[in-house]
Amino acid sequence: MIIEHSPLKQKNIWVIDSVFQFIKKDKLTKAEKTRILEDTLLDIDFEVRKPNKKDSFTITLRISSLPENTDFALLIQLVGLFELKDLDNLTEDNRGQYILYSALPMLINSARTHIQQVTTFSPIGRYTIPALNLVDLISKWQEWQEKNKEE
């Protein structure tokens, strides 16, 4: 199949904040390292903003470990600048789908890569964000948007 180019263009991605701190000081067994990597709970938040330019938008993504995680602390915040061309031929639903189902995963993958690089030489080894249930994440975000729109 020949790939059709998307009207969505990634202009730039910036890492605004990045923290990784290993907390546990004891020597770890391989089983403990595996447990730490598998049991880590993460919180993910994102915000979509439309700057002044008609066809541009930004997504701010924040991923952090929860306070219950006592083995390491992790925080990364990224901002992605995207452009959506040919707006006149796209419905509002199509625009939303490009933002949530294309641009957001691009930003999540950038965060995943950055976290892998930062943790590569840590005592627990390289940490990879597990696969996310994107449909659930977007659904919860949309519910939150609706709830906060009413207030």
Q: Can you lay out the helices and strands and say which pair or pack?
A:
Elements (H helix, E strand, L loop, with lengths): L7 E15 L7 H10 L2 E8 L6 E10 L6 E13 L7 H28 L14 H17 L1
Antiparallel strand pairs: 1-4, 2-3, 3-4
How many domains, in number, for the residues?
1
Residue runs with pLDDT of under 50 for 5 or more positions: none
Strand order of the largest sheet: 1-4-3-2
CA-atom Rg in angstroms:
18 Å
Count of DSSP E strands? Answer: 4
Shape: elongated
For the largest beta-sheet, the strand count, sense and barrel status come to: 4 strands, antiparallel
Kindly, what is the distance between the CA atoms of the first and last residues, rounded to a whole number of angstroms?
A: 47 Å
Q: Give the count of helical stretches.
A: 3
**What is the CATH architecture annotation?**
Roll
CATH superfamily: SecB-like
Mean pLDDT: 88
SSE class: alpha+beta
Task: Give the proportion of residues in helices.
Answer: 25-40%
In CATH, the topology is named Bacterial Protein-export protein SecB
Write the H/E string, N to C.
EHEEEHH
At the first level of CATH, what is the class?
A: Alpha Beta
Proportion of beta-strand residues:
25-35%
